[in-house]
Specification:
Strand order of the largest sheet of chain A: 2-3-4-5-1-8-10-9
Largest sheet of chain A: 8 strands, antiparallel
Shape of chain A: globular
Strand content of chain A: 15-25%
CATH class of the largest domain in chain A: Alpha Beta
CATH superfamily of the largest domain in chain A: Glutamine synthetase/guanido kinase, catalytic domain
Radius of gyration of chain A: 21 Å
Structural class of chain A: alpha+beta
Largest interface: A-B, 17 and 17 residues
Number of domains of chain A: 3
Oligomer: homodimer
Distance between the termini of chain A: 19 Å
Number of helices of chain A: 12
Number of strands of chain A: 10
Chain lengths: 341, 341
């Protein structure tokens, strides 16, 4: 089952936890300076390490970027399995993904290896453990570039040291609606945490989703980084929760009106843009999380969040569609998925 | 059963037909110059004529304006059973209404008698026949002021002659949305027909409802007036219908999106103003009339149209409410009535 169909702790605010490790192979140039043969060699080594491992081989799939359509690539970008950079790559590059989409290993992106683990809810430690396990297996088979002073060597110096990025995807409607998010953003910056809107820029993040992650990878241990992200995450979670309750108790009808109107529109509309659906799904998610809407399973919301995106929508329908056609099909997909609950 | 719960011909565009006759009693001053005793005498005579008639007495109710609450009065204004002027009257004045609310006879409004008959759909002739029947019964018992040259004598000279106003309440969303209504309005003026927004002014009629009626009562026969209003009504109906079909065929998804969103919002919202509900009910009515929405009975829409108005809402709930409270209860009433269909 796909990871996003499971639930995790603190999932009223935390949508997902993610750990990403950057790794490179000793004595092979970084992908930006690699030749075709060397790139092919990287792929071969990584595939060997994963697919010759009995515990892993049946759960993983290798996809060479040259072999898949642009819609398929874009769909993987939307599912956060690969980066836009990998999708645009024209050298030998690809990705190894687990069937539940929890694990993805990009090969020949900015670094030779980008190992990512995604978990629902607040599960940074679980994501770390899984990432670390994959890293250990790869390290046993591949000679990883490591320096005593600089730690793991990476193409971009901002990834040196641990090569680790720990991030939380947070749903912060109350902080965003009240504008309090601004304070949080500047505070995070001071504490070494970067924040970006998951869709759109900070100030106008669509769908009220924000991703926080560590800015620095060098000079802190993996454990320190995780603790820092978790602690700041917990403070943001607390602020968001108390603000939700405050807003609700100040004017419950106004609050419920907003939520139910969004549900009514999602359940009825015939034309729906990605932007509007993210906005309205945020309201409905808030309603479910606050116990106002009782008959909708959040798994359905997570599923919708993925399938409404342009490439996944086209993949679902098995054909390329214009933006206008997508808006019509998107409305239909949302109506059908909500009607089933 | 209340008249608005029945259906009539051309009801995809015509909500109701109305005939109103102005009559006065010979040798008694017009209500603006009447004294209390004379006013009481008018009421007595009219009540006698109606309640001593075997065919009528059980179907009618007399309400003295002094005896009912201001919410009750306002509710009757909203149901178009009495005018705001009668509701505000402080002399002896009242109304005789039939139980189905099809007939109302205002006593001591601007004239001694204002006989009104309301029918659903395009039924001007039926409304006229009923009005004429009431008029005949009253005339048999009461000495009506009539002049050979000026016809029925009325307080305001604009009502002289027939004393008749024939009107149609039309739902014209396509003409209003496209702005074509402007042309219709000016054309009507040239043809002796006045148009007013049923709620709000011409240019910004809320709920896209417009009432057309004859401007002149003198110099034309009752039959000519009816024919003129019907003919112009039919031309407007044709324009509205062809414009609806044109708009729909140009972009069916856009058209249905608007309709279903309004239905979704009406079925879900927790706060709903009168103005917004009229606007959204217009969309839903259009959807039902065009066969897009199939599972909603238009009777329910007609019922909602009455019960969402401020005084009727308060009457329904049996207590005075602030505007904010009404918006909450209005949303609830609409949800409940729609959920039943």
């Amino acid at each position: 089952m796909s990871w996003y169909l499971n639930s995790g702790p603190e999932s009223d605010v935390v949508i997902s936890s993610r750990i990403r490790l950057a790794r490179n192979i000793k004595n092979i140039p970084f992908p930006s300076r690699i030749n075709k043969e060397q790139a092919a060699e990287v792929i071969k080594e990584v595939k060997k390490a994963i697919f010759e491992n009995d515990a892993f081989k049946n759960d993983f799939l290798f996809l060479n970027m040259d072999d898949i359509t642009s819609i398929e690539k874009q769909a993987m970008v939307e599912r956060h399995l690969i980066s836009p950079e990998l999708a645009a790559g024209n050298n030998e590059c690809g990705v190894i993904v687990s069937r539940d989409e929890k694990i993805s290993i990009m090969v020949n992106e900015e670094d030779h290896l980008r190992i990512q683990c995604l978990y629902p809810g607040m599960q940074i430690d679980a994501a770390w453990e899984l990432c670390d396990k994959i890293d250990s297996i790869l390290s046993r088979n591949i000679d990883i570039a490591f320096d005593v002073n600089y730690g793991y060597l990476t193409c971009c110096p901002t990834n040196l040291g641990t090569g680790m990025r720990a991030s939380l995807l947070l749903h912060l409607p109350a902080l965003a609606m009240t504008g309090h998010i601004g304070k949080i953003l500047s505070l995070c910056g001071k504490l070494g945490i970067s924040v970006r809107g998951f869709y759109g820029e900070h100030s106008q993040a669509i769908g009220n989703m924000f991703q926080i992650s560590n800015q620095v990878t060098l000079g802190n241990s993996e454990s320190d980084i995780r603790i820092n992200v978790k602690n700041i995450g917990k403070q943001i979670i607390d602020s968001e929760r108390s603000l939700r309750n405050e807003m609700y108790s100040q004017n419950p009808y106004r609050f419920e009106d907003r939520i139910y109107r969004s549900l009514g529109i999602l359940s009825s509309s015939r034309i729906m843009t990605t932007e509007e659906s993210l906005k309205r799904l945020s309201d409905v998610r808030l309603g479910v999380d606050m116990g106002i809407i009782k008959d909708i399973d959040k798994k359905v919301l997570n599923e919708i969040l993925i399938f409404i995106q342009p490439a996944n929508l086209q993949k679902l329908f098995g054909k390329p569609m214009s933006a206008d056609e997508r808006d019509i099909i998107r409305a239909e997909v949302i109506r059908n998925k909500l009607a089933k609950t």
